[in-house]
Amino acid sequence: MDKLIIEGGVSLHGEVLVSGAKNAALPILCAGLLAETPLKLTRVPELRDVASTLKLLDTMGVKVNKQGDMVTLDASDVASFEATYEMVKTMRASILVLGPLLARFGTARVSLPGGCAIGSRPVDLHIKGLQAMGAAMHITHGYIQASTLHLPNRRLQGAKYYMDIVTVTGTENLMMAAALAQGITVLENAAKEPEVVDLAECLNKMGAKIKGAGTDTITIEGVERLTGAEHPIVCDRIEAGTYMVAVAMTGGEVTLKNARPDLLEAVIEKLREAGAQISTTAHSITVKSSGKLKAVNVRTAPHPAFPTDMQAQFMAMNTMAEGVSTVVETIFENRFMHVQELQRMGANIEVQGNTALVKGVAALEGANVMATDLRASAGLVLAGLVAEGETVIDRIYHLDRGYERLEEKLNQLGAKVRRAH
Ligand SMILES: CC(=O)N[C@H]1[C@@H](OP(=O)(O)OP(=O)(O)OC[C@H]2O[C@@H](n3ccc(=O)[nH]c3=O)[C@H](O)[C@@H]2O)O[C@H](CO)[C@@H](O)[C@@H]1O
Ligand SMILES: C=C(OP(=O)(O)O)C(=O)O
């Protein structure tokens, strides 16, 4: 199993290009199922989750053509409407084929995702939303069996649906389903994440009629068919945020290219509060830091508040910052798996319920640690970059799910990171 070996204590300098966002690429690739003619996507990041999604689409009969960061999907001849347990267990985002399959083909069989390292993560709102649009939904043998065959013209029916919890992939699944429904769908308390907006923009290029993405009410006027289009995937704000915290912690000066400061306001504000200097243009962010930071309190919440996908990275930062801070996780019930591993590196953290109390220490120490999920792994990489001596991170396949060429990008900035088998 691959490991990452990091020699800590090097400051970062230079430029790094931010990749397309995993969390936008995955739903948009699934949206390819809705189009009757080829959908051409650019800036698709080279990630394990993207490879898994392309494999899943291929098993359904979608013709996939990948050249560098360009992917063309031809869903004119889809023959299978199933996402098996084997696929869904490697990647929860496979649930995003449910809405498109049902809307276009009137039938879908998708394995229920189980819980995962960060929480139980049910998909009840995806299911209830589709039910509200008239679909027959049954759960048997761990699979969601969905059908519209009893509906007029076998089409989902537009509906008003209020989601009592803000769910990102739930909003995306329902938005994709509603795009081909008969009539108007209104999604209330919708997720406002930039990846939802990117998906809506792509769907609109494909012929959908979606308004309000980026606000908490999304209105979708269903159309009879969607066609292909061309779309570049929005930049990955979480990848960008991770590099920003890296520079703040190690000290140095780095410019992120293809970054959108308007999508990272909460993160930028917290980094400034910690003492990093940040300057921006519309498509770049420069972080300058002495490496001496003040601890900052963090509370995760849906966009535009502080993202849960940046919590582990800020926890790592607070462990070596001056002062005491609280990190409150309000989205997932078990997203503190990095705490034990950071403690192995000398961090002083106490967890009570969904709150971690972090007391900054003078220095972290390199150690052998285990990556448990994607962002926990990112937090450990950041800790390793500033720790004294060598940090060995095991199970880094989690990182490969969501960070494109991580060690290459870090080394380009001067870090000393290598992969071992
Ligand atoms: C592929 C992708 O885009 N993943 C992101 C997406 O995950 P994902 O879309 O799975 O996360 P959700 O926004 O759905 O989850 C938010 C909360 O709602 C709960 N919930 C969700 C759906 C549902 O039907 N019932 C329910 O109770 C979840 O358990 C969680 O407590 O948003 C998360 C929150 O920003 C991010 O951490 C993930 O990186
Ligand atoms: C939790 C994440 O991803 P996923 O929803 O794909 O598990 C993440 O990107 O941090």
UniProtKB/TrEMBL annotation:
MF (Gene Ontology): UDP-N-acetylglucosamine 1-carboxyvinyltransferase activity
- For the ligand (phosphoenolpyruvate), the binding residues are 22-23
Q: Any idea which positions bind UDP-N-acetyl-alpha-D-glucosamine?
A: 92, 121-125, 309, 331
Decide whether keyword Ribonucleoprotein is in the record.
no
Q: Which protein family is it in?
A: Belongs to the EPSP synthase family. MurA subfamily.
UniProt cross-references to InterPro entries, sorted A to Z: Enolpyruvate_Tfrase_dom, Enolpyruvate_Tfrase_sf, MurA_subfamily, RNA3'P_cycl/enolpyr_Trfase_a/b, UDP_GlcNAc_COvinyl_MurA
Give every Enolpyruvate transferase domain span: 7-410
Under Enzyme Commission nomenclature, its number is 2.5.1.7
Q: Name one Pfam family in it.
A: EPSP_synthase
What's the protein name?
A: UDP-N-acetylglucosamine 1-carboxyvinyltransferase
* Catalytic residues in the record: 116 (proton donor)
Q: In which pathway does it act?
A: Cell wall biogenesis; peptidoglycan biosynthesis
Q: What does this protein do?
A: Cell wall formation. Adds enolpyruvyl to UDP-N-acetylglucosamine.
User: Catalytic activity, per the record?
Assistant: phosphoenolpyruvate + UDP-N-acetyl-alpha-D-glucosamine = UDP-N-acetyl-3-O-(1-carboxyvinyl)-alpha-D-glucosamine + phosphate
Task: Please state the gene responsible for encoding this protein.
Answer: murA
Signal as a keyword of this entry, yes or no, is no
- 2-(S-cysteinyl)pyruvic acid O-phosphothioketal-modified residues are 116
Query: What Gene3D superfamilies has UniProt attached to this entry?
Result: Enolpyruvate transferase domain
Q: Which UniProt keywords apply?
A: Cell cycle, Cell division, Cell shape, Cell wall biogenesis/degradation, Cytoplasm, Peptidoglycan synthesis, Pyruvate, Transferase
Give the organism, scientific name.
Answer: Methylophilus aquaticus
| Subcellular location field | Cytoplasm
